[in-house]
Structure formats: C-alpha cells, structure tokens
Amino acid sequence: MSLTRRTLLALPLAAPAITRAQGVTEIEFYFPVAVGGPITKIVDRYAADFMAAHPDIRVKPIYAGSYVDTLAKAMTAVKAGQGPALAVTLAVDAHSLVDNELIVPLDTLATSVEDRAWLNSFYPAFLRNGQIGGHVWGVPFQRSTIVMYWNKDVFREAGLDPDHAPANWEEMTAFARKTTKREGDRVTRWGIQVPATGFPYWLYQAFAIQAGAELANAAGNRVNYNAPACVEALQYWIDLTRKYGVHPDGIVDWATTPRDFLEGRVAMIWHTTGNLTNIRGNARFPFGVAMLPAHKRRGSPTGGGNFHLFKGASPAQTAASLRFVKWMTSPTRAAQWGIDTGYVATRPDAWTTPEMRAYVADFPAAAVARDQLEYAVPELSTHDNQRVTQVLNDELQAALLGRKSPKQALDDAQANATRLLRPYAR
After folding, report:
1. Distance in angstroms (rounded) separating the CA atoms of residues 392 and 222
2. Which end of the chain is more exposed for a tag (fewer CB within 10 A), N or C?
3. What are 293-325's pLDDT values in tens digits?
4. TM segments (predicted)?
5. Distance between CA atoms of 228 and 213, rounded to whole angstroms?
C-alpha cells in the first residue's frame, strides 16, 4: 500500500491546492479514524473552536481511514500536487517521512523562547519517536500505551479480588485459568485476549519489553527480532493458547476485542488506552484498568500519532499549521482530548488543569496509562518502517497460527528486516 522510497523521492512537492484567499489561509488536515467513539465529531468541534478564535485561518479536516491509509493518501496527494499542510500519522513513520523529505523539522519553525518551551513541554517518552538527527519532526497528539482491562464481576465470580489486576505473567496466567469458562468442550468465556491484527508488532513489543528485550536500536537501522528474550516473549504469547488454554486459538482481531470484552466473552484484554472512553461508555459491568503485567520488568511501548507538517505548503499555510498544532496541543486541549477519547494527555501540565483534576478524581483509571509512562519505551520505529514492521507482523501471525516455531518465525523476520535495513546501516 505504501510507495517506494525511490518513487517518493521523485515526487514533486508542489503547494497544496488549498491556498490563501481573501485574507484567510486555508489548510487541509489529514486525520486517521481507526478507533471506537465519535472521533470525527470531536475533531470537527475542535477545528470549529480554533477557527472561531482564529478567523484568519480555515481548517479543513479530512478523515482518511486507518493510520496506514492516512499515510498512503497523504503521499498520493503530494504526488498529485494536492498534499495536506499537516496530518496526524503514526509517530513511528517519522523515519520514513524524513528519509523521503516529506516533512518539516518543527524545531526550525518553533524558534522563539516560548516555542522552545512548548516543544519541551511534552512527556519525553512521547517525544522520542519524533526526535531524529538532532531535530524534532513530530509533536505528540493522539498518544497511548497498551493497558489491561478486566471485568470485575467475572473476577468476583471466579473467587478473585475484583480490585486486584495481575501484576506479572504468572498471576495473569493463573487469573486467566480461573476466569476461563467452559461448557463441555466449548469455551464460553476466555480468560485473556491479546489481538494480533492491525498492530501485532505493537502488542508483541509489550511482551518483548517485559521479557527484557529491545526490538530495535535508537537509530532505527538495526533490529533484534530474534534475540533470546524476544523468542521467550513470543513463546509465552503462544503458550497462553496451547499450553494453558486460556486464550483463543489463532489470530484475535484488533477491532472485535473490545466488543468481546464488553459482551462478556473474555475476562481480560490488552488494548490501547485510546479505547478507554468507548469502554467506559458501553460497559454494563464494573471494570478495571491496569498497567500491563511484568515479567523481568514492567513495560509497554508508546503508541499513536503525532502531528507532522508537510513540505510543499506555502509559508502562510505552514505558519497557520504551526498555530493550529500549538493550539491543539495546549494544556487545556490536551486535557480535553484525553477526557473525550481516553488517549493520554501528552504533557504534564495538562494533568493539572481543573478539568483533568476533576476527571481523574471521578475516574482514577484515566491516569493508569500516564503512570505507565515511567516504564514505557518508544514504539518500534525504523527506516522503511512499514515494511520492516510488516515482516515482523507476518512472522508473528505465522507463529500464532502454528505454521512456524517462535524461533523460526523470528529468525526469518530478523533476516528479512536486516535485508531491508541494509541501505541504512552505518
């Protein structure tokens, strides 16, 4: 679905079709819609509020589907000379966007004392994926970590403390055994589900972190897919099904996992904190939210999207885009975005706003993903990122389906990724 690096380098970086007219600067804003909840209505409202406060700027949100769709459409639009001025794309796509000379380093635009303070106001764990070659290429916005959701009624029914989440792999296995429910040979409720479509590498990275592994180096030109700790992590994921019998066989779907949880077909799930508001609004039972369980250590990868400013925009559009991004990531808006969606407010001062203080006091689970940032690591990000992660996704699914052993799958992923990264090796 993505364009090759050679093709992208040849694309003309023509100015977007939306131009300055009658004193009003118009900018197109590509936004991914891939999670539950009324996201488009929320973004439309934010854009309207911004335009009311900035009548000289007109923002046109364009909802482009998944993150992969959004990136592909933005690249295609650039080729046609209709590229957006800005977009929210995966934070991990920064290497590819920089390699293909498609985005502008934000620190070259935000140069005042106030601007530098703004760039330094975000949680470091969220900034890391956008920091490449001494520049800041992406600003955190729609950011997350993976958290565990559990059904307190099911825990109570199984004789477990409904207010105690599993703290480590051993407890998660034990709790999942107690909450898996069978009627004869048929499973009517699973103990645990970890989805393996959409973002398999992301969920797997959590297991790998907990096993003590790092999937890639900071430069994004080398991966460690087949390290012993990585093999251990994948083996445990598979063991949840084949050894312990507490996880569905095969590939669990990303999109249906929250629904399975809400409909009582699973006791515990791993999923993005971006589904927190959706689950809170639709659960007909008390539920808990916890950091992911530890093994050798605790941890989750960060996730989600950053704002990126695209080349080809006029100076007026670039300036307007920067004003919009600064407004959207201010403490008040960052707090409101977290409240509206469940994503993590991306800067510490957002958590001190009256609105966020009241929200957390009423719903303490909202702070779990923030607190997990202490243990978080940057999401897997490399040069040629989509292809390098896709080879891992394919091999993870092969192992989960029983077509390869964990070691063989990860050896094959390592070989393919190393080949793809050879042009970037230093």
Report:
1. 13
2. C
3. 999 999 999 999 999 999 989 999 999 999 999
4. none
5. 8
